[in-house]
Design goal:
Layout: H1 12-22, H2 25-32, H3 42-52, H4 56-64, H5 100-103, E1 106-109, E2 113-118, E3 147-153, E4 155-164, H6 165-170, H7 177-201, E5 211-213, H8 227-237, E6 244-248, H9 251-256, H10 259-266, H11 283-290, E7 294-298, E8 301-303, E9 313-315, E10 321-324, E11 339-344, E12 350-356, E13 364-377, E14 388-392
Parallel strand pairs: 1-11, 5-14, 6-7
Antiparallel strand pairs: 2-3, 4-13, 6-10, 8-9, 10-14, 11-13, 12-13
Length: 396
């Protein structure tokens, strides 16, 4: 186009088509410009010339249309999308390393409280005279009697959460409020149980004389210490052979890098018939060294501050280590176990959905999650716990 477009020139048909074109505001703006030999939009050229005179920040505002009266160069990213929640992602930070079931397994009981039969520790440790004096003599007898002084008593634990029906119906994917409530309540109850079990397994009062506090150069984060020798020595003092070593989450990194522990790896390097030598001390290899079935590490964390205070994170399992005897299921004829979690009615949590019509516009529902447990240490009343040995403050 080399000359301006002038409405009204030409025949009637051309004028009608031209008038229709000019009804578009963008065509009208171009038609109003003077002829340009290069076919450029003079309004755009003027804008670019004006922008060249401005500072960098002002130029950005001018060209983006954010300065008052500026020409708008197309839509922005924020104007073409309305933010919504992703339908396939819900971030949740949970403790994934709970070990309560591994160290004090649940046992289902039919009564909230009951007696636990046991034979006194001394029964099978006595040294009676087993000789028969003559051909007509009778063998000697050993006096003993089953003991029922042990008992458990389950305590009730539970939490409740409320969801109103309007919120349930209006929630976006993936916000399934019923599922979230169940997950949150179970998480709280699991954490509370982990804290109770940790207090028993790492509580010195449950071990009698079968405990020691490690200090100074003997601590496992000191190059001079020999944790393996300490553990093996303690293991031999126990009446029931331990099969599980329990470590606090802060302990294992120090233990696996202890120079004297690493020597057990290096010592295997020249022997070809004992399997591949690991690059670093591993839980399975450490268990093999100690001749126990498992080494479990309590990595669960929790907030130690009071509600409303500054968030302070701490470890559920402290700076201790315990050698214990664990049997997943009690044997009615012979059980030698550090302890069990006696659970009334069911291994799983009891959950109930309770409709409530009074609150809000359309009412809602309560989710109630409960259980009844007693974490019982079976050898706690002995002078020296026959099924456990505790090391306290094994690292600084």
């Amino acid at each position: 186009m080399t000359t301006p477009i002038i409405p009204g020139e030409g025949n009637a048909a051309d004028a009608a088509r031209l008038a229709q074109l000019l009804s578009d505001p963008r065509i009208a703006r171009l038609a109003a410009q003077q002829a340009d030999p290069n076919g450029e939009d003079r309004a755009l050229s003027a804008l670019l010339s004006e922008a060249a005179k401005e500072s960098a920040s002002e130029r950005s505002l001018l060209l983006s249309g954010r300065r008052s009266g500026a020409h708008l160069l197309g839509p922005s990213a924020g104007s073409v999308h309305i933010p919504t929640g992703l339908p396939n992602q819900l971030n949740v930070y949970t403790n994934r390393d709970m070990i309560a079931d591994d160290v004090m397994p649940p046992v289902v009981v039919k009564k909230m409280a009951d007696k636990i039969w046991a034979l006194p520790t001394s029964t099978l440790l006595s040294t009676p005279n087993v000789a028969i004096a003559g051909s007509r003599a009778r063998p000697g007898e050993v006096p003993y009697a089953p003991d029922s002084s042990l008992s458990y008593a389950c305590n009730a634990y539970g939490l409740v959460d409320f969801n109103d029906n309007d919120a349930i119906d209006n929630a976006d994917t993936p916000l399934d409020l019923r599922v979230i409530s169940a997950m949150v309540l179970k998480g709280f109850l699991d954490l509370a149980r982990e804290l109770r079990v940790a207090a028993k397994v790492f509580g010195s009062s449950y071990y009698g004389t079968s405990t020691e506090t490690v200090s100074g150069a003997d601590r496992w984060d000191q190059a001079s210490s020999d944790p393996v020798a300490q553990l093996l020595a303690a293991k031999e003092t126990m009446l029931s052979t331990p099969n599980v070593l329990v470590l606090g989450g802060q302990v294992w990194p120090k233990l696996r890098t202890n120079p004297n522990v690493l020597k057990y790896i290096l010592g295997r390097a020249g022997v070809s018939n004992i399997g591949q030598v690991p690059a670093m001390m591993q839980l399975a290899f450490f268990a093999e060294m100690l001749e126990v079935e498992r080494v479990v590490v309590g990595r669960a964390k929790y907030l130690t501050n009071q509600e409303g205070g500054t968030a302070t994170q701490g470890y559920v399992w402290g700076k201790s280590a315990a050698l214990i005897r664990v049997e997943a299921n009690p044997n009615p004829k012979q059980t030698a176990c550090f302890g069990y979690t006696y659970r009334f009615e069911s291994i799983a949590y009891r959950n109930e959905v309770i409709p409530e019509r009074l609150p809000g516009r359309s009412g809602g529902e309560y989710l109630k999650l409960t259980h009844a447990d007693d974490e019982k240490v079976l050898g706690a009343d002995e002078a020296a716990n026959p099924t456990g040995y505790l090391f306290q403050t094994v690292i600084s």
